Amino acid sequence: MLNGKKVFLIIAGGIAAYKCLDLIRRLREQGASVRCCLTENAKEFVTPLSVSALSQGPVYTDQFSLKDESEMSHIELSRASDILVVAPATADVMAKMAAGLADQLATTLVLATDKPVLIAPAMNLRMWLHAATQANLATLMARGIHVVGPNEGPMACNEFGPGRMAEVPEIIAAIDGVLSPVQSLAGCHAIVTSGPTVEPIDPVRFIANRSSGKQGHAIAAALAAKGARVTLVSGPTALPDPVGVTTVSVETACEMLAACQSALPADIVVCAAAVADWGIKAAEQKLKKRPGGTPPVLELTLNPDILATLSAAGPNRPRLVVGFAAETEDLIAHARDKRSRKGCDWIVANDVSAETGTFGSDTNQVHLISAEACESWPSLDKRAVATRLADRIAEALS
Ligand code: C5P
Question: Cα separation of 300 and 389, whole Å?
């Protein structure tokens, strides 16, 4: 799979560094050559000797090594491989990368490279969920850095949650995906809706919902990674626009429908937005609170159903229309009913009852419902759900 590819592996200081010894072996079994750099902290977890023995080459650790620098400068070193892989990518290394620091050889190499960079984050779950780490992740992704994992599960610190480094086969598959992306959706146009819609009450107030847009944005990025031209029509979110995708920002459901319709024709539509069912007859001026006055009555208007409208047969009907069903009870039955009512081809059903914590979280447990079948997927990172869905879409269209 990776025959002849040159992988530069940067090992940072986390307990998952031990898995890198196996990663080196498996990469070499695939025919790749591996050069390695250890951060100072990584040396506390794995020794340069083991890494050198397994990679059968020099191990770089020192920013100011006269010997290494005279053989190959750090700039050349950072560009001599096909890909830089940072595994484990600790919270500290991610923060340094996001800030553009070059305080040691590892971070200097990442900053100096012109090659794709893949990170495999691994850290304690609270560090992973910390707003600082999530902001750094968003910054790195917006810059086109590829990310694999982390996975959810038991951790070395005896806690359970997201933060385990992706397993070696997953990292190898991700490296392969970056180096030889399968452009199975090349030539296709996909429209993806994402995020909430906001419906104004007056010029300063609005009604909205809790959708973060994480799932929709990840689907847009996954379809683009397969070569599709993607138009992402999104309500307001805190997320950066995905790389390689045309993002159209909208606020109301009516604006979202209009943006989708003007993006037609499309081969694929994925409606992941949480669209408000009702709009409001908005006041032109700010509603005033009068002393002793009664609260205003809001007059609701029926919003268009974007999914049903785009699913309706016509010359412009996309080949595959996928909707989402967020339910809090009788998930599968409601989702099946929704599929036939809205006329879409597939429904991705997920349980959003409070205890699942799906809204705003990084994981999602979904069921893919078609006319013929219901496939239940395990709880996955939202990016992994997006990749699987993009795989399925590519299979269906092929
Ligand atoms: O009817 P409900 O909101 O449960 O349906 C969810 C699915 O329909 C999602 O795919 C959502 O994006 C889509 N939808 C839409 N326009 C609406 C309401 C929902 O596209 N007005």
Answer: 35
